[in-house]
Amino acid sequence: MDRRLVFLDRVISFSLMGFALFSFFSISLTQISCGLGGLAWMTKCHLTGTWRNQRLPLKIPFLLFILACLVAVAGAVDVEGSYKSLKRLLEILIFFWAVNCIENEDQRDRLILLFIGSATLSTLTGFYAVLQTGITIQARVEGTMSVYMTYAGLLMLALLVTLGNLIFSGKDIKANKWLLGAVVFMAFCLMLTYTRQAWLGLMAGIVFLIWFRKKILLCLLPVLMIVLFVISPVHVKQRMTSIFDFSDKNLVARLALWQGGWLVFKDHPLTGCGFKCIDAVNHLYPDPTGWIKKLRGLHNNFIQLAVDTGIFGLGSWISIWVFYFMTLFKRREPGYSRQNACLMGSSAAVFGFLAAGLFETNFYDAEVSMALYFVMALPFAGSQTSYDVRT
Fold this sequence. Notes:
- The chain has helices at about 5-20, 25-50, 60-75, 80, 90-100, 105-135, 150-170, 180-190, 195-215, 220-230, 235-240, 250-265, 275-280, 290-295, 300-330, 340-355, 365-375.
- It folds into two domains: about 1-50; about 60-250 and about 290-380, no CATH class.
- The protein contains 17 helices and no strands.
- The longest helix is centred in the C-terminal third of the chain and has 30 residues, at about 300-330.
- By secondary structure, it is mostly helical.
């Protein structure tokens, strides 16, 4: 075999492992990993002339979303402040890189375990911080990230991937009993981030998994929630009960942001006003609470994308997830299998991400979105199954 191809294969293999490992520790190393891996993948395609053989699931909705973003920036109220966000579109390549470079199920499963192991290892830094400060909402666990919301979003994705593999692996679970310990570590650390939107995403993902595993078990979920509430530290209990407090300042702030976003959207409904346009136009709209001027981000993926990219952008973005679930569930296997465990874990993570995005713009968080694209790719990768690439 050509030595160049052997070298490129090694670069791709190590970059995939680097991405899975560094996702919970360093965005710079994560970006370097996927950057080097992506270049190696494209170089290999060029040398072997195999561009046409690459699998491109979801290419149409992704292309529509990219086009919507370009149109939004072209018509932005502040093009100079908006166009810089287009570099984030490169993150989409992570999905296609992983789909085409993970060669078989064994490699895919090793990467999943490495991703889960990295997430579990990162919780140790969170527990160490708690030992120093005690369990208090004033010292929310940030883990290895600089922002607790980012860390919570990453933990939520890893937890749901882990639960999917536990629930749908069947007999294979005997070889992965350590995953139960990983769930406990990640769940406790996620609880100590006090991040309610991540809790919501986790709960949505769990309901998703139980629904497809055995619907009757949903009846036990309220009992589990009560037990969890009873054994939780007092600060966590207060955070839980605040979810149902409609006078909670965070909910009031979000409602004000969403109302302000709606006013901006009405003036730019088709293609939006461009990324970060709230910074440029917020002074043109009433802001009696002051939250729009202070926060600017709208804390909801759907509203934020509607404002930034209009109906065209929001519709194309939603189509990505519609086609994602449609494509996967056409290929869902009955019973338990490695492929089914991977598919359900990935689907639950995406579902949890979308649920959490109702109260946070987690799609705009680079660390979370990069991990999301990687997790999305896993069911399409490492299998000889031919997915419908027309969408």
